[in-house]
Amino acid sequence: MNKHVSLLRKRYVDLRDTYLGSELKKVELLFYISVSIALGLIQYKLLNYENTYNIRAYISHIQSCIVILMAFRFGYVGLATAVVLVLAETIFIIEEYLVSFDKYLLLGLTLKFFTIFVTSFIAVLTNRQQIQKKRLERMAITDELTGAYNQRFFHMVLESELEKAKNNNGSVSLIMIDIDNFKMYNDIYGRDFGDNILRTTATILSEILDEGSYLCRYGGDEFAVITTNTRLDNLEDMANNLRREFERLKQKYYKHKLYEKVTLSIGLSEYPNMSRDKNELIYQADTALYHAKNLGKDKVHLYQDALMQIRKNISSDHQQLIGIFKGLLSTISAKDKYTHGHCERVAAYAVLIAEAMGLSAKEISTIQCAALLHDIGKIEMPRHILNKKEELTEEEIKYLRQHPIYSENILEPLADMDKLTDYVRHHHERYDGKGYPDGLKGKEISLGARILCVADSFDAMVSDRPYSKSMSKEDAFKELEKNAGTQFDPEIVEIFIKAMKSYAA
Q1: Residues of the signal sequence (predicted)?
Q2: Residue 240 is part of a domain; what is its CATH number?
Q3: Position with higher pLDDT, 61 vs 224
Q4: Using N-to-C axis directions, what is the helix angle for 447-461 and 490-504, rounded to 10°?
Q5: Contacts of 129 (CB under 8 A, 6+ apart)
């Protein structure tokens, strides 16, 4: 019973929104009703006068045109209104006919029934036209495979909601969702298997999300959820609840045992407390998602602005410099989209290592700052070198290897921050002495630089870059272990892998 009531309510809302969605349409319908009632009253008054059949016939024809027009303009809503009006007039005609048995009244009665028939036919055609129009509109904004909104609609509604939030002091939250190991399912079990995962995941997420949220397929195996006016301190709880509910409901939707292993990684951010505009909001949520996947998958990660964290831990003399460095990082990001996100991820890995080693808060802060700014010298690099897909020439490699020195020069105003410029300059030194720019070896390389070397290399291995595809986290761990003692400090490699596995557990 509740299901039927819910369907009827939904049908009523659809009709209302379709035919009475604007104030102008409501006024138009009211005008037709008013005119029809006024003409009916005139006809009723004319009953008291003789020889008024012709006038009443003209009025009746006008009324028929109005109700037909109502059916054309308002479909079933217009039909329902028209039927009420026509039946009211029909009752008066029947009453008069029973008194006088006038043949003109019988003709008028026939006209009323014919009017209802024509009106019903037009209302059906109008409704079908509206359904077809809605279907075409829906196809234009939805993903054919999953039924979720498509990327075009995602950008359209995100811009709209951000504009509303800006004008009304509201907020917009963006949740990026990625299906873990989707490529593996697709490659091993086939595309149909992967498509079923996508469809079912979209169905489950739609069931979990509130009515005011928008579920969009952002691309590939990635979904995006736009929601408004969610408190920042509740956002992470909301995302965690979404992941838990997905875990619970997938038993209901997925019948195959393999499907039951499907998990989600989630990244999130918010406007205006965390981001300033649409591009920054998308970037932050996407970065948080990437971080959630690299920290073990089946995780929720709220974006953390590493530069803002650093700002809290440096002297007031350097506060303005952080804003300048943020601008430089944005400039690099425009040249090389990999670099900005890479720096933030390296900062997170470096902090993970430093905390696992029990370093002081001051030392951790310096390492975090160095990690975030270690590639800032790439602003001096030409775009064609940074984004080159082919193998670099010897001259280009030599030029690219100057970026740690450029980074050190740019960061010279922060030279009084203990060891920061040293860490940045030497993050490409190797444990066996074959690194650059100074060929330092073993413990000659500062601890912070050795930590950055491991964190930087790991992120490079698990990320897609212009010249290489990403490898799995497990393969990256094996590569680190293979090169421990030559490229990397073996102790730091061991600590990092243990910390990452512990975090993922």
Answers
A1: none
A2: 3.30.70.270
A3: 224
A4: 50
A5: none
How does pLDDT run across 167-177, given as a tens digit for each residue?
999 999 999 99
335-386 pLDDT, tens digit each:
565 565 788 888 889 999 999 999 998 898 889 888 888 888 887 777 777 7
- Ordered DSSP codes for 344-371: HHHHHHHHHHHHHTT--HHHHHHHHHHH
pTM of structure? 0.63
Contact at 8 Å (CB) between 189 and 231? no
Of 119, 141, 163, at which residue does a domain stop?
A: 141
* Residue with more model confidence, 319 or 51: 51
The answer on 265 and 360 residing in a single domain is no
Q: Maximum distance among all alpha carbons in the chain?
A: 118
Q: Whole-angstrom Cα distance, residue 147 to residue 135?
A: 12
CA distance from start to end of the chain:
46
Same domain, 80 and 197: no
The two structure tokens encoding residue 351: 């902090």
Q: Are 404 and 354 in the same domain?
A: yes
Structure tokens at 309: 């964290």
CATH of the domain at 479: 1.10.3210.10
Indicate whether 262 pLDDT > 70. yes
How do 264-271 and 300-302 pair as beta strands?
Answer: parallel
Q: Which domain holds residue 278?
A: 142-303
The 10s digit of each residue's pLDDT in 27-71 is 888 888 888 778 777 766 766 666 666 777 777 778 788 888 888
Q: Are 256 and 241 in contact (CB under 8 A)?
A: no
User: Same domain, yes or no, for 247 and 296?
Assistant: yes
| Token code pair at residue 459 | 């992120």
Q: How far apart are CA 12 and CA 19, in angstroms?
A: 11
**For residues 127 and 176, what is the distance between their CA atoms, to the nearest angstrom?**
38
Let me know whether 174 and 289 are in one domain. Answer: yes
- Which of 274, 303, 332 is a domain's end point? 303
